[in-house]
Amino acid sequence: MKKALIAAIVAIALIVFSVYTIYNSESSNSKTDSSISITSDKNNTSNQTIEVTPNNIKTKAIDFSLKDLNDNELSLSDLKGKKVFLNFWTTWCPPCKAEMPEIERLYQETKDSDLVIVSVEIGEPLNTVKSFIDSNKYNFKVLIDPDQSVATKYNITSIPTSYFIDKDGIIVSKHVGAMNIDQMKAYIKTLDK
């Protein structure tokens, strides 16, 4: 009886240790992997009624400071008291490029509200990003993350990725993949709950 009990305890301990080792191995690999995959949402049609459920992340957004296209620094903490739509993207990402006109439409509709759109471009030189934004006549706030340090803090592994942050600086939802304006608005509504 005692031998069977000891064997069972040892077996359980080995299973727990194995699961722990595998989990930590995957976590550390994902943190050190600097590659970013592209995610596309093929069901992105504007004529659908969109309802989203907040992910209930309820985590304090990690503060950061980055420069915009005019070399002005912006910190996320400067936006406390406002709702924030934080979007990570690159100029070479097709789903990101498809999403940008929708972000611009949202910006034009909400620019006088308490919503701030912060678009963080990951890993490209300023002149490349500035040329892309200027040629497309986008007006929303674009910040540059040249060394991907902020993307790493936010564990960005697929782009585009968006976070929806409430007035208290709490992340309410996260969306991976391109969105249309209706999806964006649905996520923004969850910030009022």
From TrEMBL:
<protein>
    <submittedName>
        <fullName>Peroxiredoxin</fullName>
    </submittedName>
</protein>
<dbReference type="InterPro" id="IPR036249">
    <property type="entry name" value="Thioredoxin-like_sf"/>
</dbReference>
<feature type="region of interest" description="Disordered">
    <location>
        <begin position="26"/>
        <end position="47"/>
    </location>
</feature>
<dbReference type="InterPro" id="IPR013766">
    <property type="entry name" value="Thioredoxin_domain"/>
</dbReference>
<dbReference type="InterPro" id="IPR017937">
    <property type="entry name" value="Thioredoxin_CS"/>
</dbReference>
<dbReference type="InterPro" id="IPR050553">
    <property type="entry name" value="Thioredoxin_ResA/DsbE_sf"/>
</dbReference>
<dbReference type="GO" id="GO:0016491">
    <property type="term" value="F:oxidoreductase activity"/>
</dbReference>
<feature type="domain" description="Thioredoxin">
    <location>
        <begin position="55"/>
        <end position="193"/>
    </location>
</feature>
<dbReference type="GO" id="GO:0016209">
    <property type="term" value="F:antioxidant activity"/>
</dbReference>
<dbReference type="Pfam" id="PF00578">
    <property type="entry name" value="AhpC-TSA"/>
</dbReference>
<dbReference type="InterPro" id="IPR000866">
    <property type="entry name" value="AhpC/TSA"/>
</dbReference>
